[in-house]
C-alpha cells in the first residue's frame, strides 16, 4: 500500500485515492487543425517511463481534489506532490 | 423538510441493542439535522464576509478541521467546500440567508439534509472500534479535537470528526451507504 501525500490533506492511504494517468497533457488549442496522427498522439500516446513519472491522482475518498505526483515507476517511491496548475518543483523531467 | 414527525431515518431498520451490552462503546444516531453544502472562494473577501454575515463566524480554512459555534458545526471539506450541520428548524432560514448573501458570487449552497445522516460513537473503545476499518491514524496525539477527515470506514466513505476527552467520534455517512455502515458497526462491536 502506498502512502500518498495529498497537497491538502497530507499523507493518506492509497485506498483513498484513484489514479489519473500521466500529468501535464495539454489539450491542443485547435483540435480540428490536427491530422489523425497528431490527434491520436494527444489521445492515446503516453510516456510510460521506467523511472520518474509525473502523474495525476484524485483524492476521491478525501477532499476530492485532483493533484500531481512525481513517482518512480520502478521503486514506487514518491518524491513529491503538487497542486493542479503548478509545475513540479525542479521543472520537467 | 419541516414535517419531521413523518420523517424516517435511513438507519431506522438497524437494531442497535448490541451496543447496550458493549462495555466500552456507546453509539447514538443523530438523525434529522440540517446539512448544507457550501462552496465558494475563500480568497474572495466578499465570500468570507457573506459567511460571517449569515453564520456569525468565518469558515474554517485549515484543511481537515471544523468549527462549532452554538448549535452550528462547520466542516472543511476542501479548499472551496464546507459542510454546515444545523438544527433542522434553522436549516431553511440559513439556506435562504445564504442565497441572499451570496448573490452575484461564484458560489453555491445546497441542502443535502436528506442525503446523509450522522452517527456518534463514544466510550473508551470508540477509537479502537473505528480504527478496525479506517486507514487513518486515529491516535489521540494525532487526530485531535477540532480535527476532521474524509476517509474510509469499512468500504464506504465517511466524514469523521473527533471532540472531547475521552474522544467522541462523529461519522457523517451518505444515506445509501448508511445501512451497510450500520451493519458493519454491529459486526465490529461484537468483541467489545
Ligand atoms: Zn486530500
Query: What is the number of helical segments of chain B per DSSP (H or I, 4+ residues)?
Result: 5
Report on the biggest sheet of chain A: 4 strands, antiparallel
Largest interface, with counts of residues having CB < 8 Å to the other chain, equals: A-B, 12 and 13 residues
* Contiguous helical run count of chain A: 1
Total strand segments of chain B: 10
Report the biggest beta sheet of chain B as strand number plus sense, adding barrel if it closes. 5 strands, antiparallel
Classify the beta-strand content of chain B into a percent band.
25-35%
Q: Low-confidence parts of chain B, pLDDT < 50 over ≥5 residues? A: none
Output the radius of gyration of chain B.
17 Å
CATH topology of chain A: Folate-binding fold
Task: Count up the domains of chain B.
Answer: 2
Counting helices, strands and paired strands, the structural category of chain A is mainly beta
